[in-house]
């Protein structure tokens, strides 16, 4: 009798064990869709689909790789597309702002010529920008950014209004200086050989005198004893005064020379090539403030 009871207990224990093992497997499958047959271990993590109601294909292991949910739209795809700008021939060039003296500078550059196509309409354009930049680079106006500002306006006006006939040049080569406009040019046999360019003469207390003189000494690089500075392309014409390349920014009107005629590098080189001992120098007018 005791043997029978022991055998019954073993059978009951085996049944409890089998039921517990089966419950663990169904619990794992219940998260994937509840009901149906037994779901293999791990199948719940692999089922796909946007619907909350599982389909029959979710109860078995998929045969291919899991599909990827649709990608969320990025920030760039959410931004509205701006319409492309219409091309315009009069649109200002990038980095070339319009200055307060736009129309006046356009007019003076058109009068001077040689700086490219320019429209006298007071509106900056790519062509105007290029012409103004070329002008600024030629006369060392800094920065050469194409803006028609006060310095560009001042230089353009002085050059465009210089009356070359006032020099009274005769035969041979004559260097002319308009002290009032602070411009200089070269004549040969009564004709303009070198168009007006910029200069800077003596500051207050060191006024450059008007008159007619003659170059009497030249040196490719002269040393100034009283001021201890080199004077490149030196051509002396009176009382320690002469032509030479500027050693400072030419367009700084707050300063000036000690009576000499300061020139930009390119102009100093050209004047040196054209000049010689005996060449005539004519100075007219008077620098304002001296």
UniProtKB/TrEMBL annotation:
Residues 83-94 have a biased composition (Low complexity). InterPro entries: LD-transpeptidase, LD_TPept_cat_dom, Peptidoglycan-bd-like, PGBD-like_sf, Transpep_catalytic_dom. One of its GO terms (biological process) is peptidoglycan-protein cross-linking. Pathway: Cell wall biogenesis; peptidoglycan biosynthesis. Transmembrane segments: none annotated. Residues 34-102 are annotated as: Disordered. GO terms for cellular component: extracellular region. SUPFAM superfamilies: L,D-transpeptidase catalytic domain-like, PGBD-like. Residues 173-284 form the L,D-TPase catalytic domain. Pfam families: PG_binding_1 (PF01471), YkuD (PF03734). This is L,D-TPase catalytic domain-containing protein.
